[in-house]
From TrEMBL:
Record's GO cellular component terms: plasma membrane
Name the UniProt record assigns to this protein: NADH-quinone oxidoreductase subunit I
Function: NDH-1 shuttles electrons from NADH, via FMN and iron-sulfur (Fe-S) centers, to quinones in the respiratory chain. The immediate electron acceptor for the enzyme in this species is believed to be ubiquinone. Couples the redox reaction to proton translocation (for every two electrons transferred, four hydrogen ions are translocated across the cytoplasmic membrane), and thus conserves the redox energy in a proton gradient.
Oligomer status and interactors: NDH-1 is composed of 14 different subunits. Subunits NuoA, H, J, K, L, M, N constitute the membrane sector of the complex.
Native species: Dysgonomonas macrotermitis
Main location: membrane
Top-level class of the enzyme under EC nomenclature: translocase
Domain of life: Bacteria
EC number: 7.1.1.-
Binding-site residues, [4Fe-4S] cluster 1: C78, C81, C84, C134
InterPro entries the UniProt entry points to: 4Fe4S_Fe-S-bd (IPR017896), 4Fe4S_Fe_S_CS (IPR017900), NADH_quinone_OxRdtase_chainI (IPR010226)
Length: 177
C-alpha cells in the first residue's frame, strides 16, 4: 500500500474536487447540526466554577505556596546552606547568609541564617525539589490553597522572608498548612 493511503487514526478522508450538492451549497444541514450541538451543551452540567468564591477539590499531591519554618522554640530553621537554591531547576531561589550574634540566639536555630531569602514566583514551577533538598526541614510547600497574588509589576512576585517565614505561634504549634 502506498504511504499516502495509510491512515493510522482511521479518520483519513480522501479529498476530491467533486461538485457540491444543493444541500451542501446552502449549508442549511450543517447549520442545523451545529445548532443541535450548541443546544445539547446548553443543558449539560456546567464545568466552569465561580473562582475565587468557589474552589475545586484539590489533588492530594497538590503543592501550594512555600513557607520557611520555625522550630518549636520559634527560631528560624533555615541556615542559608543554599542546597534548595542548588536543587531548584528554575533558579527561583536566592539568599544571603549572615552570622548569628549572641543576642540573636532566640531568633535563629543555627550559627548561620538567611538574612535575605527570596523566591521568584514567576520562575517557580512548584516542583517541590527545594523541600526535598533541605536538610533542616526549613522549607515546605503547603496545601494552603493560597495562590500567588495577581500583580502588575515583577517586584510583587518576589516573595521575601516577610511573606515566607511562618509566625512564631505557628512554629511553636507546628502549623504551616
Ligand atoms: S518548588 Fe521547585 S521551582 Fe519552586 S522554588 Fe522550589 S525547587 Fe524551585
Ligand atoms: S531552606 Fe533549607 S536548603 Fe534552603 S538554605 Fe535554608 S536550610 Fe538550606
Amino acid at each position: 500500500m502506498a504511504i499516502e493511503n495509510i491512515s493510522l487514526s482511521g479518520r483519513k478522508t480522501a479529498v476530491t474536487n467533486k461538485d457540491m450538492s444543493f444541500w451542501e451549497r446552502i449549508y442549511l444541514v450543517q447549520i442545523v447540526k451545529g445548532m443541535m450541538i450548541t443546544i445539547r451543551h446548553f443543558f449539560k452540567k456546567k464545568i466552569t466554577i465561580q473562582y475565587p468564591e468557589q474552589t475545586r477539590t484539590y489533588s492530594p499531591v497538590y503543592r501550594g505556596l512555600h513557607v520557611l519554618m520555625r522550630d518549636e522554640e520559634g527560631r528560624e530553621r533555615c541556615t542559608a546552606c543554599g542546597l534548595c537554591a542548588l536543587a531548584c531547576p528554575a533558579e527561583a531561589i536566592t539568599m544571603k547568609a549572615a552570622e548569628r550574634t549572641k543576642d540573636e540566639l532566640h531568633l535563629y536555630r543555627e550559627e548561620k541564617y538567611a538574612a535575605v531569602y527570596e523566591i521568584n514566583m514567576l520562575r517557580c514551577i512548584f516542583c517541590g525539589l527545594c523541600e526535598d533538598a533541605c536538610p533542616k526541614e526549613a522549607i515546605f510547600l503547603t496545601k494552603s490553597q493560597k495562590h500567588v497574588n495577581v500583580g502588575t509589576n515583577r517586584e510583587s512576585f518576589i516573595y521575601g522572608k516577610d511573606k515566607l517565614v511562618i509566625s512564631v505561634e505557628d512554629g511553636k504549634n507546628k502549623r504551616y498548612n
